[in-house]
Design a protein that fits this description.
The complex is a heterodimer of chains A (256) and B (419). Chain A is built from 10 helices and 12 strands. Chain A has 256 residues and is of the alpha/beta class. In chain A, the strands form 3 sheets. Chain A has a 6-stranded mixed β-sheet with strand order 6-9-10-3-11-12, sandwiched between helices. In chain A, helix 4 packs across helix 5. With 419 residues, chain B is α/β, with parallel strands linked by helices. Chain B has one domain. In chain B, the strands form 2 sheets. Chain B has a 10-stranded mixed β-sheet, with helices on one face. A 9-stranded mixed β-sheet of chain B has the order 3-4-6-8-10-12-14-16-18, covered by helices on one side. The longest helix of chain B is centred in the C-terminal third of the chain and has 17 residues. Classes of the chains: A alpha/beta (256), B alpha/beta (419). At the A-B interface, helix 2, strand 7 and helix 3 of A face helix 6 and helix 7 of B. Chain B: This is Fe-S cluster assembly protein SufD. Chain B: Belongs to the iron-sulfur cluster assembly SufBD family. Chain B: It comes from Pseudomaricurvus hydrocarbonicus. Chain A: Belongs to the ABC transporter superfamily. Ycf16 family. Chain A: GO terms for molecular function: ATP binding; ATP hydrolysis activity.
């Protein structure tokens, strides 16, 4: 489904991703862990087309579609979704209006009919219930005055409505108490299906106890330096990342 | 002296209607007036020479498009000026308590209060206010009797077409406990010049809902203002919407003349291309216990330029005044320009006042966030801009007007680009 090959990317002329490879098949859940500054958030931004992030080398395709050639909105319409670490507040634009515009755009791209306002409202209310957000949050400005946990749940709400093919969760667990964490995890688990894949970016194993990944990767200095199954997350939790310093990076090994 | 101004003075000298005595002082001031330069504070950011340098050429083939001024569903009482000529004044079927006469036809009592109101609401008038004083022979007098509640909105439409110069005056008097809605509506996008001023005297405990739609655009040159004098416990809810044009300035001035008056002033301006829009506002708190809430928001795109000069003057002894002035701007391009200057002058010690001005670029993070959900960049931009402005549109008491405006605002946003 997602195929990333030798991806090099930079922000403000600083190289962040330095040859990242990742293959994700339909239905798989991949966790990406790693120390601060490794490039975990950058990966999400580069894939979704954030301004200021430039790709120097490599490729990223979603079901064969060259993501890097598309505008940000086209990537979303192609089925890519990023749950933001820091969701943006937009006063003056109601959550409902925003959600409707998003769903309309994505449905249109899929060749589906647009929903009537009434049907959409019903759908949005049901989804709000699932993520435990009161329905009046739909009327408020997008994320305006939401607590950290409410913002994260609003991200999951958007995911439920947009039904993307590939979801990237960027530290969706940060700043959440255990109840909110469960809501987020349940939202994700309810969407797991043979034709939908996830990248779960996190610092902690805790989220992965709820969303059990098929694979765990360690991202360090812009590359994936170690991959394994779910047990790797436990290993990292107990050992930390200090061992990374002692281990030569993959390209150095190759050159050596 | 500018050639246009000397011709205006010459034309003014030939005016000999019943208001001539009221025009004399202004004429004397105009004779000595200097054409503003870039050093003239009141005109500093508006290239006023454009007015002087613009030649008007009437085009016989150009038909008057009075339909552009229609507001569907409003059911207003319309007073229409086409190129400065008042088309007709409604006859006897007016709501009880409302009197409307043309300036030319005024007699008796109407002349008396009109003469009193003519320049008194705003005594210190700028150059074009003086020009309007001496040249506005066309106008309407609107008199709302004490305790009369006029439900039907009164709309004064000014349609300007190519090649015309027009000077119109509106005088409005609301008696004690009277209620009325007055809409000043300016339309036209062709090369024309006009000054349009309205003077309002709002009586004790009266309520005035006011709209000024300064929607002249394109090549039109327009300078005007709405001046209000509020008596005790009077309430004003005023809403200005301005589109820019080759040259445009509006002055919204309020004097709290009686205690416990309340003024809500909202203003929106949306500029694109090379448009100009200058909003000057002066609030005089001459007495204690007055309240002013002023919110001004603008979006300025491409090469356009906005000027906002908002002054709140709290006189000695005007204790317990509450005054807030807020100007927020959204800059859509790095070539667009905003000159904002909120001023508070306070000579009383027991008042609560706040003022602020901000200039921001469109929130790129918000744009990306919306794009990342599939919303196109252009639609995201429209939604963001609309959200910024819509907060003030939502505050318009008249829903028909708000509903009529929203699609026009959306259209205007649709043309704007982030550069």
């Amino acid at each position: 489904m997602l195929s990333i090959k030798n991806l090099h990317a930079s922000v403000e002329e600083k190289n962040i991703l330095k040859g990242l490879d990742l293959e994700i098949k339909p239905g798989e859940v991949h966790a990406i862990m790693g120390p601060n500054g490794a490039g975990k958030s950058t990966l999400g931004y580069v894939l979704t087309g954030r301004e200021g992030y430039s790709v120097e080398q490599g490729s990223a395709t979603l079901d064969g579609v060259d993501l890097l050639a598309l505008e940000a909105e086209e990537r979303a319409r192609a089925g890519l979704f990023l749950a933001f670490q820091y969701p943006v507040e937009i006063p003056g634009v109601s959550n409902l209006e925003f959600l409707k515009a998003s769903v309309d755009a994505v449905r249109e791209a899929r060749g589906e009919e647009s929903l009537s306002s009434k049907d959409f409202l019903k759908m949005a209310r049901e989804a709000s219930k699932k993520v435990n957000l009161p329905a009046d949050f739909l009327k408020r400005g997008v994320n305006e005055g939401f607590s950290g946990g409410e913002k994260k749940r609003n991200e999951i709400l958007q995911m439920l409505l947009l039904k993307p093919k590939l979801c990237i969760l960027d530290e969706s667990d940060s700043g959440l108490d255990i109840d909110a964490l469960q809501v987020v995890a349940e939202g994700v688990n309810s969407q797991r299906s043979p034709d939908r894949s996830f990248i779960v970016v996190t610092h902690y194993q805790r989220l992965l106890d709820y969303i059990k990944p098929d694979f765990v990767h360690v991202l360090s200095d812009g590359k994936i330096v170690k991959s394994g199954d779910y047990s790797l997350a436990h290993e990292l939790e107990s050992q930390g990342y200090a061992w990374l310093k002692d281990q030569p990076a993959a390209d150095e090994v190759a050159e050596g | 002296m500018s050639s246009w101004l000397s011709s205006a003075v010459t034309r003014a000298e030939a005016v000999s209607d019943w208001l001539a005595p009221q025009r004399q002082a202004s004429l004397a001031l105009l004779r000595d007036a200097k054409w503003p330069t870039r050093k003239t504070e009141a005109w500093k950011y508006l290239p006023i020479n454009v007015w002087d340098n613009t030649e008007l050429q009437a085009d016989a083939a150009e038909s008057t498009d009075a339909t552009s001024g229609v507001i569907e569903g409003l059911n207003s009482l319309d007073l229409v000026f086409v190129n400065g000529q008042l088309q007709s004044v409604p006859g006897d079927d007016l709501p009880a308590g409302l009197t409307v006469v043309s300036l030319a036809d005024a007699s008796g009592d109407a002349r008396a209060w009109a003469a009193e109101t003519f320049t008194a609401v705003k005594p210190a008038r700028h150059l074009f206010g003086l020009v309007n004083d001496v040249l506005a022979t066309q106008g309407v007098l609107i008199d709302v009797a004490a305790a009369a509640v006029i439900e039907q909105p009164i709309r004064i439409v000014n349609v300007l077409t190519k090649g015309y110069e027009a000077h119109t005056r509106v005088l409005v008097r609301l008696g004690e406990h009277a209620k009325a809605t007055v809409i000043e509506h300016y339309v036209g996008d062709q090369r024309s010049k006009n000054t349009g001023f309205a003077e309002y005297k709002v009586g004790d405990s009266a309520y005035l809902e006011h709209y000024r739609f300064a929607l002249q655009s394109g090549e039109s040159l327009s300078i005007g203002g709405s001046h209000f004098e509020l008596s005790a416990r009077a309430e004003l809810s005023s809403h200005l919407v301005g589109f820019g044009s080759t040259l445009q300035r509006v002055d919204v001035d309020v004097t709290h003349a009686g205690e416990h008056a309340f003024a809500k002033l909202n203003a929106i301006y949306l500029l694109d291309g090379k448009e100009l829009f200058d909003l000057h506002s002066t609030i005089e708190h001459a007495v204690p216990n007055g309240t002013t809430e002023e919110n001004v928001r603008g979006i300025v795109a491409d090469n356009s330029r906005a000027v906002f000069n908002g002054r709140i003057h709290i006189h000695r002894g005007a204790q317990k005044t509450l005054a807030e002035l807020n100007n927020r701007n959204l800059l859509m391009s790095d070539r667009a320009e905003i000159n904002t200057k909120p001023e508070l002058e306070i000579y009383a010690d027991d008042v609560r006042c706040a003022h602020g001005a901000t200039i921001a670029e469109i929130d790129k993070k918000a744009l990306y966030y919306m794009q990342s959900r599939g919303v196109s960049r252009s639609q995201a931009q429209i939604m963001l801009n609309f959200g910024f402005i819509n907060e003030l549109v939502d505050q318009m008491p008249n829903q028909v007007l708000a509903d009529w405006l929203r699609p026009q605002l959306r259209d205007r946003f649709a043309g704007m680009e982030v550069k």
